[in-house]
């Protein structure tokens, strides 16, 4: 299912182009035109961006050429999915491997495009002028946090949802399953999302802190936002620990009422590292604000 999400856009566009191509001569011509347009989109987007920013083409832009070349190959594969099975002798094995083959092919496209974006961001950060552009730095990091929250939130919901569906299906096949078992599936779903939700809240508060720092890095609002970030980070650590304790404790207490008992200990280091970083940052912002106020009073 996870691989299906990766190749879903290419699957939909591939089926659309295939349907158009088989609809007649006019549809075939339209399909070929769309095939070229879809494949050249990465290169066209890069060219428009460089022209808008009035920047010259450099070596890393060759990655965009590579993405478009690979797009021609990838869309052709999805238009003709039987090509994924070349080299596989058994038809049954090919059918079983289809999601994996398509997922890996799509993943390589994301790797090429992601590599270009990261290299481009790295090159921009090395420019000397950027160090003087406070708004650019704060804005870029704020956008990065925004997309991180969206991606992490979607991944958390997807992972917890998949486990919940699989658990319900497994209980449906078990004749001894009772309502109490389904209740624990819902409990596990909530306890999986609780620490991740707290972590998402912490990241979002970090984004708010960046906005306050852009307005005034030494202001009272910035100090208050930093303190709130530290509090939320510590809360994320507590949520992670308490969720694990509550889940395993509930399983132990009601183990005789359940058809299956799945003890698990999920103690991620991410909230802990984030909490330490937030506490250090809060202390730094507070001390910097105090020094700034003292300096203003002396002047």
Mind explaining what this structure looks like?
- 81% of the residues lie in helices and 0% in strands.
- Helix 1 packs across helix 3 (62-79) and helix 3 packs antiparallel against helix 4 (91-126).
- It has helices at 2-22, 25-53, 62-79, 91-126, 134-172, 179-215, 220-253, 270-298.
- With 299 residues, the protein is mainly alpha-helical.
- The model has no long low-confidence stretch (mean pLDDT 77).
- The protein is built from eight helices and no strands.
- The chain is flat and about 75 Å long.
Short synopsis of the structure:
With 299 residues, the chain is mostly helical. It contains eight helices and no strands.
SSE topology:
Layout: H1 2-22, H2 25-53, H3 62-79, H4 91-126, H5 134-172, H6 179-215, H7 220-253, H8 270-298
Helix pairs in contact: 1-2, 1-3, 1-4, 2-3, 3-4, 5-6, 6-7, 7-8
């Amino acid at each position: 299912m996870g691989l299906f999400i990766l190749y879903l856009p290419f699957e939909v566009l591939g089926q659309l182009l295939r349907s158009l191509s088989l609809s007649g001569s006019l549809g075939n011509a339209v399909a070929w035109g769309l095939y070229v347009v879809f494949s050249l989109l990465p290169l066209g987007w890069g060219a428009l961006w460089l022209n808008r920013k009035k920047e010259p083409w450099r070596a890393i832009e060759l990655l965009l050429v590579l993405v478009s070349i690979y797009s021609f190959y990838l869309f052709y594969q999805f238009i003709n999915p039987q090509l994924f099975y070349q080299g596989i002798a058994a038809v049954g094995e090919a059918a079983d491997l289809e999601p994996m083959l398509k997922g890996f092919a799509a993943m390589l496209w994301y790797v090429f495009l992601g590599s270009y974006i990261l290299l481009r961001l790295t090159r921009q950060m090395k420019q000397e002028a950027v160090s003087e552009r406070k708004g650019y730095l704060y804005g870029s990091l704020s956008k990065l946090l925004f997309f991180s929250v969206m991606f992490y939130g979607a991944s958390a919901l997807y992972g917890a949802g998949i486990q919940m569906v699989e658990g319900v299906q497994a209980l449906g096949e078990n004749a001894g399953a009772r309502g109490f078992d389904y209740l624990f599936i819902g409990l596990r779903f909530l306890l999986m999302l609780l620490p991740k939700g707290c972590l998402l809240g912490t990241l979002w508060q970090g984004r708010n802190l960046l906005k306050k720092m852009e307005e005034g890095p030494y202001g009272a609002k910035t100090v208050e936002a930093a303190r709130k970030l530290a509090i939320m980070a510590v809360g994320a650590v507590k949520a992670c620990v308490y969720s694990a304790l509550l889940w395993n404790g509930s399983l132990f207490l009601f183990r005789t009422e359940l058809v299956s008992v799945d003890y698990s200990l999920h103690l991620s280091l991410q909230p802990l590292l984030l909490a330490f970083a937030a506490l250090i940052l809060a202390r730094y912002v507070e001390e910097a604000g105090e020094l700034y106020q003292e300096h203003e009073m002396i002047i």
